[in-house]
Design goal:
Blueprint (H helix, E strand, L loop, with lengths): L3 H13 L13 E6 L2 E7 L8 H7 L13 E6 L11 H7 L4 E6 L9 H8 L3 E3 L4 H7 L1 H9 L3 E8 L4 E3 L11 H12 L3 E4 L1 H7 L14 E5 L18 E5 L4 E3 L2 E5 L6 H11 L4 E6 L1 H10 L4 E6 L8 E2 L10 E5 L2 E7 L6
Helix pairs in contact: 3-4
Length: about 350
């Protein structure tokens, strides 16, 4: 049976998930206030720039129980912030309320916080416990940890392929592969990521909107690789519906919500792109195609996970799907006949 610390931390992680796709570039955080084995307050970080989990947790305590705050234990899955950002530091709030004990899952990798939040609490005489459900906490905020530890966004590769291993017909002809239920799932995935990326050929052949139309939540920032500016501006990606970045070798320009970013397109193109995205505080990127773009990330080893949708349809000929060499799926799901294989990259160079 799990001890009380683990039970309460699991509840923090449950609450934190409600911030998925809404709080980036901040982490997902949940908080629970416990008095004598009874929860008297709960909260989570629900929107970037707004109140943190600890604030919402303490505000949720009813008036008749506020006197119990200074006798309670606060559980939070990430070290409370100790600096002024979009909101005041949570450590001040905790100290102000004289909370005697704080239990934490993970130390914050953000340099302005890392360790200093815990130090401030302990200097104030607060008993601080760390490392509760540490692996689960890091898994929940893997995008946030990758961003600060590796100085780049978390990279997810995604494609759909036929049963015989093709992602399209000859000549870049568009062909439906996954079913309508899997398509909705893909839009759910989009709602949880900061950005989505495609190459020139995919933009030309599919004219995708790259928006989150089949699921609730925010649409990700659109990223398109267009070295020679071949894409005509009647395509959906130029509609300014969503902030869009066009990486190219020709010009640096901004027009409304569309920004052209000039880079060399040399042998370091992927690291150059990821550096720009890091500077723009984009926490994660879903790479949706095409085959050449996906394979370039695979060949470089710069990816964190892959989601491969395999249908029951056959193509016979066409554009071969990317190849994940020496990789075995960590799990598999089935959605109305489509099979989804999930991979994790254990050998990332950066």
């Amino acid at each position: 049976m799990k001890n009380i610390h683990e039970q309460m931390m699991q509840r923090c992680l449950q609450l934190a998930k409600f911030g998925m796709g809404k709080v980036a570039p901040n982490p997902m955080v949940g908080a629970v206030l416990l008095y004598k084995d009874k929860i008297i307050g709960e909260g989570y970080h629900s929107q970037y720039g707004e109140a943190h989990a600890e604030v919402n947790c303490l505000q949720s305590v009813s008036e008749d129980k506020k006197h119990l705050i200074e006798k309670s234990t606060l559980y939070v899955n990430l070290e409370p912030c100790s600096h002024f950002g979009k909101t005041p530091p949570c450590t001040r709030l905790i100290i102000h309320h004289k909370i005697p004990q704080v239990v934490i899952s993970n130390i914050d990798p953000f340099p302005k916080v890392s360790g200093s939040g815990i130090a401030q609490l302990r200097e104030a005489g607060i008993d601080v416990t760390t490392g509760i459900c540490e692996a689960e906490g890091k898994e929940l905020n893997k995008r946030f940890f990758t961003f600060y530890e590796k100085k780049r966004p978390y990279i997810i590769l995604k494609w759909a392929q036929t049963a015989d291993g093709f992602i399209g017909l000859p000549g870049n002809q568009k062909v439906p592969i996954s079913n309508e239920y899997t398509n909705r799932l893909v839009h759910k995935w989009r709602s949880g990521e900061s950005a989505i990326l495609i190459g020139t050929n995919t933009a030309l052949s599919d004219d995708p909107r790259l928006t989150n139309r089949l699921w609730s939540g925010n649409s990700p920032v659109r990223i398109v690789l267009d070295k020679k500016l071949r894409l005509p501006e009647y395509l959906h990606i130029f509609d300014n519906e969503v902030p869009t970045l066009i990486f190219n070798a020709e010009k640096q320009q901004r027009r409304k919500d569309t920004e052209w970013i000039q880079i060399p397109f040399s042998g370091t193109i992927l690291t150059d792109i990821l550096h720009v995205l890091y500077e723009k505080k984009i926490l994660s990127v879903l790479i949706e195609g095409g085959a050449k773009t996906l394979q370039s990330f695979i060949s470089s080893g710069i990816w964190d996970e892959a989601r491969v949708i395999s249908s029951n349809s056959f193509c016979g000929q066409g554009i071969p799907a990317p190849v994940l060499t020496k990789q075995q799926p960590v799990r598999k799901e089935e959605v109305s006949g489509d099979r989804i294989y999930f991979f994790e990259n254990k050998n990332r160079p950066i």
